[in-house]
Design goal:
The protein is α+β, with helices and mostly antiparallel strands. It has a domain of 110 residues: Butyryl-CoA Dehydrogenase, subunit A, domain 2, CATH 2.40.110.10. 46% of the residues lie in helices and 13% in strands. The chain has 8 helices and 9 strands. Helix 4 runs antiparallel to helix 5. It binds flavin-adenine dinucleotide.
């Protein structure tokens, strides 16, 4: 088993680390305090090639593998989880869905502009009455001549904030949007697509979270993503990709918290000594390091599995594939209990919720 990173991966990691230290961390506190979605920084992130990092170069992406993409997300997440969401949504939810389910025409139409940051995409699954139970969507797409009319409402969308009224963002009309339930991609039409900023978040204040009302929004046939009637599968597949990115971002948060804790423990003096010299504090830091490393290794394994094209959803091993060893009882009894355990821990095939399944 080889746990080392390649030279290219180390180089990308170092570049992302420098970028985070110099640009992301420098703005994080102020953006969080003022609840500012920093579009200038989002554009700098795009210029680094991080939006659409896993998109092949022929569509304007950086063509990175998943492990390397995870390294980038870890670094940006270490500096500011709010800005990390821009990468996760754009790359994992939006670009990867178009890459996987889009027609060649859709890929050429949307991906280059999403990768360059000219357009920002969002993923619209959650509704006012539908969160974890994502299959229970109320938003409807009705067939009309040449396309579909969509009616309904969506909430808590990262990167879906209203941008009208800001002179610098007028070109927003060209931004790509992804909406459920049929996972439809379309261009923004301000007259029928009303958006307002979601309020009341406990964190991620510098990220852009919006509610969207769709009132007879027209989507042309050629903009529908994936087969008609298969929108739920497309959405679940997008979430699979998103979870890897969110996990990588969380590893970054752990690392950031560990770094800050170590630094503080060396600066803070109590009873004439830095608190880092106290055994209890050392034990807490060691525990943080241990858990951060464990999370990082699990996430790397998920990235490696994605790179190998392996399914990343856990499936219990079939009892017949693990021959029971006779120990303290008959083999038959042991294999029965193994089967019972396996059955009782099986996850629902459609995942448990939009954020954690
Ligand atoms: C910062 C942020 C960004 C987001 N961005 C997006 C986005 O870009 N696009 C998008 O579509 N959505 C987005 N979401 C929405 C997110 O996916 C939903 O919040 C999530 O699906 C949960 O839905 P809910 O909030 O309605 O909670 P509910 O589903 O109403 O759940 C409420 C509570 O009940 C619990 N619960 C639910 N089901 C069960 C069960 N079967 N057993 C036991 N407990 C259960 C939950 O754990 C939770 O504690 C975002 C959310 C946040 C916080």
């Amino acid at each position: 088993m080889d746990f080392s990173l390649t030279d290219e991966q180390l180089h990308v990691q170092e570049t992302a680390r420098d970028f985070t230290n110099n640009e992301v961390i420098a703005r994080a506190n102020e953006n969080a305090r003022t609840h500012t979605f920093d579009l200038e920084l989002a554009q700098m992130i795009a210029d680094q090639g991080y939006l659409g990092a896993i998109v092949p170069t022929e569509y304007g992406g950086a063509g990175l593998d998943y492990v390397t993409y995870g390294l980038v997300v870890q670094e940006v997440g270490r500096g500011d989880s709010a800005m990390r969401t821009v990468i996760s949504v754009q790359t994992s939810l939006v670009c990867s869905s178009i890459l996987k389910f889009g027609t060649e025409e859709q890929k050429h139409k949307y991906l280059p502009k999403l990768c360059s940051g000219e357009w920002f995409g969002c993923f619209g699954l959650t509704e006012p009455d539908t969160g974890s139970d994502a299959a229970n969507q109320r938003t409807k797409a009705t067939k009309v001549d040449g396309g579909w009319k969509i009616n309904g409402s969506k909430i808590v969308h990262l990167d879906g904030q209203p941008l009208e009224g800001r002179d610098d963002l007028r070109p927003d009309r060209r931004r790509a949007r992804l909406q459920g339930p049929r996972r439809v991609s379309r261009r923004h039409r301000p007259a029928r697509l009303r958006r307002h900023r979601d309020q009341g978040k406990m964190g991620l204040h510098a990220s852009d979270t919006a509610a969207i009302a769709l009132d007879d929004v027209f989507c042309a046939d050629e903009d529908v993503l994936g087969p008609i009637g298969k929108g739920f599968s497309v959405a679940m597949s997008s979430l699979d990709s998103g979870r890897y990115s969110v996990a990588s971002g969380c590893v970054g948060i752990c690392q950031g918290a560990l770094d800050a804790s170590v630094e503080y423990s060396k600066e803070r003096i109590q009873w004439g000594k830095p608190i880092a010299s106290f055994q209890l504090v050392q034990s807490m830091l060691a525990e943080m390091k241990l858990r951060t490393d464990a999370a990082r290794l699990l996430t790397f394994r998920a990235g490696w599995m994605k790179d190998q094209g392996q399914p990343t959803r856990w499936r219990p091993r079939s009892p017949s594939s693990t021959p029971a060893r006779p120990r303290n009882g008959s083999p038959t009894r042991r294999s029965r209990s193994t089967a019972a355990r396996a059955t009782s821990t099986t996850t629902p095939s459609n995942g448990c919720c939009a954020t954690c399944a």
